[in-house]
Amino acid sequence: MMKRLTFAIIALILCSTVSAQDKLLTANDLMSGSLYPSRVRSVQFVGKSNRYAFVRDNVLYSGTSSSQKEIVNLETLSKAFQSLENKELRYFPNVKFVNDKEFSFVYGSSVYLYNIKTKSLTKPVTYDATAENMDLDPKNYQVAYTIGSSLYVNSRQQVFTVGEGGDGIVYGQSVHRSEFGIETGTFWSLQGNLLAFYRMDESMVTDYPMVNTATRITTATPIKYPMAGMKSHEVTVGIFNTLKGTTLYLDTRRDTTVAEREMYLTNLSWSPDEKTLYIAKINREQNHMWLESYDVETGKLKKVLFEEQNERYTEPVDGLYFLPTKPDQFLWLSYRDGYKHIYLYNTDGSLVKQVTKGDYEVQNIIGTDPKGDNVFFYSNIEKPTERAAYSVNIKSGEVTRLTPDHGTHSIAPNANGTLFIDSYSSTDVPANVVLVSNKGKQIGSIYSAPNPLADYAMPEIEMGTIKAADGKTDLCYRLIKPLNYDNGQKYPTLVYVYGGPHSQLVTDSWLGGGNLYFLRLAQQGYVVFTVDNRGTDNRGFEFESCTHRRLGEIEMADQMEGVKFLLSLPYVDKDRMGVEGWSFGGFMTITMKLAHPEIFKVGCAGGPVIDWKWYEVMYGERYMDTPQENPDGYADNSLVRKAKKLEGKLLVIHGAEDPTVVWQNSLEFIDACIKAGKQVDYFVYPHHPHNVGGRDRLHLYQKMFQYYEDYLK
């Protein structure tokens, strides 16, 4: 029924004596960067060589499997910088090697190129100091950037205005509210001669009021926030030719209907020869995807390569990856067999083969070897809490693990795909960087971080699995026990929950994916528990999508299985149990608190979604359909309607300028509580968006901790 594996995290630090491990975390410690594992920066191979490089303590180092040496320190780099700019370089920047002897870096509003051999510095390009969304073409040192809603390209020392925004028109920024893996609004071709970019028309979307109360008279700063079931924005894709200074728009619309204009344009991918742009086009219902190719000279549709449909939703978030020696073949990631796997396609749309197969997730494609025979990718083949790196031979399908140690890995291959820099952490490793071979053998150590908590008294962290509410699916949990707990005593318990799509809180990483806040609670006598319910990520399509149209129901049923497990433990006090979560987790917190007042004495919900009709189109309609299509699903899971069930203590927290889960959500819940005669605690962070950052986060930690001290402990 249940599997457990205990990691005594304190005992992980073999270098520390038991007597030294007696310090307790304070609230101020939670904001201390020194208590997080130290890391090196700019870890990479040098050009096409087998030497690696990294930045640490304002020094750039180079190394092999057997030795390391200093290449450039801040003093030397600053001397070159001062001779060029007549001012000092204040810190060693992040660098990127462009060949064996030169590296580039961005400082201020300029791109610089440093020659290690000659110790000389040049400045290929400078852009406007107010620029945002800077996108560098590393081949030609051209820069695309935005100022306000306009897009500019600094190309060959000439600045082009690619698109001048205003009146609801936005150029060169991420669209569709950054769903579908969209992180940017510009896309350079391989040779840098062409730039694809988004043009978003939001003029038809209703203004949503945001206010800044810091001004004498409160200032209105409205945003465009298309809510589920309401009018969405319309997006097109342009192509800017840097050689000609011309722009054309792709003919991505088959007709002029609203349904066609509101389709999502995602996963933009350039062909190696710069002649074709590929776009994954998705209908607003998000249950039908067309992978299309466009001629960038004419803007015309060349071909619909293939389609994917699913009665729940289809959500491509990864672009095409072309094989280096076969420009007419590409790799595509799809959930079509129930798990995210790699498929090999010809550019005419014909399927060559499914490359990976099994009950595991291919999380990302990293790259290939020079011939394109082997594909490198991240996956959780051995266990769902892990992210390891693998290679798969396209011809044979043979899979080889590249990262020998358990944990959460990030790798960088050398030019010929024979060596890899492996940066990782795990339940027993704060942060390591090692050199591994393509056979999965460690052949050198680059950096090993000391345990930053070696002098602190550490609670015991247990990782394991329980069964979901369906009685058959394994769910992964993390249990942090009170410091020096005694089975004969009863302790207050906090269930920390998120539970929504694209999330995984329980991981084989440092502290099991937990944080210093959880450790401090455990040091102060609390049990802290988290379980990844169905609806979360990296466990296959059915695991995540089974919550479709009924958000909150299956998730809560699985969370309550976690509660059953907790109540089976002799040291958990059934009368002192709380629940906490943020965003989707805030929705889950209030959902669980209202449904089970007999279990949860205290709740703390930050930035909670209260009713999905107040959430945005792309995310909301994917998982709930529209309010018009799914009125019962929206109504049954609206927390406004359930406010009358509130019992006990509930603290709701919201940022007053939250553009993600708009303030309206929690305000309407508070109003419903007032009308129902229910007392609820409420705290607002002025000027903060969806999360509370900066020094104010310390205030947040103190507020939540004191709330539990007052009402749960």
Kindly describe this structure.
There is one protein chain. Residues 6-19 have low confidence and may be disordered. A hairpin with a 6-residue loop joins strand 28 (326-334) and strand 29. This protein has 4 domains: 3-36 and 452-711, Alpha/Beta hydrolase fold, catalytic domain (Rossmann fold, 3-Layer(aba) Sandwich); 39-126, no CATH class; 139-317, 8 Propeller (Methanol Dehydrogenase, Chain A), CATH 2.140.10.30; 320-449, Neuraminidase (6 Propeller), CATH 2.120.10.30. The protein is globular. It is mainly beta and 713 residues long. It contains 11 helices and 46 strands.
Shape: globular
Annotation field: number of helices: 11
How many angstroms separate the termini? 31 Å
**Residue share in helix:** 10-25%
CATH class (first level) name of the largest domain: Alpha Beta
* CATH topology call of the largest domain: Rossmann fold
Strand content: 35-45%
Can you tell me the residue ranges where pLDDT is under 50 for at least 5 consecutive residues?
6-19
Q: How many domains?
A: 4
- Radius of gyration, in angstroms, nearest whole number: 27 Å
CATH architecture of the largest domain: 3-Layer(aba) Sandwich
Average of pLDDT: 95
Largest sheet: 9 strands, mixed
Structural classification:
mainly beta
Q: Count of DSSP E strands?
A: 46
CATH evolutionary superfamily of the largest domain: Alpha/Beta hydrolase fold, catalytic domain
Main sheet: which strands, in order across?
Answer: 1-39-40-42-41-43-44-45-46
